[in-house]
Each structure stands twice: as structure tokens, then as C-alpha cells.
Write a structure and sequence with these properties.
This protein has 164 residues and is mainly α. It has helices spanning 2-10, 49-105, 115-136, 139-160; strands spanning 14-15, 22-23. The protein has a two-stranded antiparallel sheet. Helix 3 packs antiparallel against helix 4 (139-160).
Length: 164
């Protein structure tokens, strides 16, 4: 009867309490770590302290993996939100700098290259004014108005460049 019980025990695979390797029936030493399986052959598999500890560690490991995955998802979400906020702030600063630059440095007119056209318009306007003044004033008044217009023309050229 003892032999039948021993045979029944040896027909079951034994899980090593040290490394968790499933060993075939009849093995006395673990294939993986060399643990003496005869020490735990008659015990319930889950009642050995090493097996209980391994189960506990496995559960803790799974729980920590879940927490780590959740933390990683939260971190990535915060990074995406942070990057979006950073990009919006950066684009706003660039837009403000462009507006300040254009209003500060490009408000003077004429722009380079358009001075010749503006100079021609100014000359035509001065000729029209001179003709109008000539008709309405005496010769001495005309010379005075002409001198003032020449001074204005010189100031204009000094501000916007030469007519050459």
C-alpha cells in the first residue's frame, strides 16, 4: 500500500519551490536549479513557504507593473499637454515680436525701391503748387513761396534719401 501511494506521488509533476520550474514525475532534483525535490514531494504545492513567497512576489510584481503602466500613461499625457502649452506660448511670443518689429521698424514710408516713384510725385505736386502760387501772387511773393518749397524739398530728400 505504501508502494502504491509512493507511485501515485511520483506520477505527478512537481513544481520546484525555489525557481518555479515544473519537473516531470519521478525527478528528485530540479532540472533548473538543482533543488532537492524529495523535501517537498509530500507537501501541498502552495503550502511551501518559497511557493507562497513566490506567489506574493508575483502578485506584487503584477501590481507594480500596472501602477508603472498607469504612471507612464499619465506622464505621457502631461508631456503632450506641456508641449502643446509650450508651443502655443512660443508661437504667441513670436507673433508679438513680429508685430512689434513691423510696427517699430517698418512704419516709415517709402520703402526702399519706391523712393523714385515718390520723388516724381513730389516733383509734380511742387510744380502744380508753384503754378497755382504763381498765378495768385506777385513776383516777390512767388519767390518767397518757391524758397519755402525748395526748403521743404530739401528736408524731404534728407529724410528719405537722395533722388539719384
Amino acid at each position: 500500500m505504501k508502494e502504491a501511494k509512493a507511485m501515485e506521488e511520483t506520477n505527478e509533476a512537481i513544481t520546484c519551490p525555489e525557481c518555479g520550474t515544473v519537473n516531470p514525475a519521478g525527478r528528485t532534483i530540479c532540472m533548473e536549479c538543482g533543488f532537492n525535490l524529495d523535501l517537498v514531494r509530500n507537501q501541498e504545492p502552495a503550502t511551501t513557504s518559497a511557493a507562497l513567497e513566490r506567489e506574493s512576489i508575483s502578485e506584487d510584481f503584477e501590481r507594480l507593473n500596472m501602477q508603472l503602466a498607469e504612471w507612464e500613461r499619465d506622464r505621457r499625457q502631461r508631456v503632450l499637454v506641456g508641449l502643446t502649452v509650450y508651443q502655443v506660448v512660443l508661437l504667441t511670443v513670436i507673433a508679438v515680436l513680429v508685430v512689434v518689429f513691423t510696427s517699430r521698424f517698418l512704419r516709415e514710408w517709402p520703402f526702399p525701391g519706391s523712393f523714385q516713384v515718390d520723388s516724381d510725385r513730389m516733383a509734380n505736386a511742387l510744380l502744380k503748387v508753384a503754378a497755382t502760387v504763381e498765378m495768385e501772387t506777385t513776383k516777390s511773393g512767388f519767390e518767397q513761396v518757391l524758397a519755402e518749397m525748395m526748403a521743404e524739398s530739401i528736408r524731404y530728400e534728407g529724410k528719405y534719401g537722395t533722388t539719384h
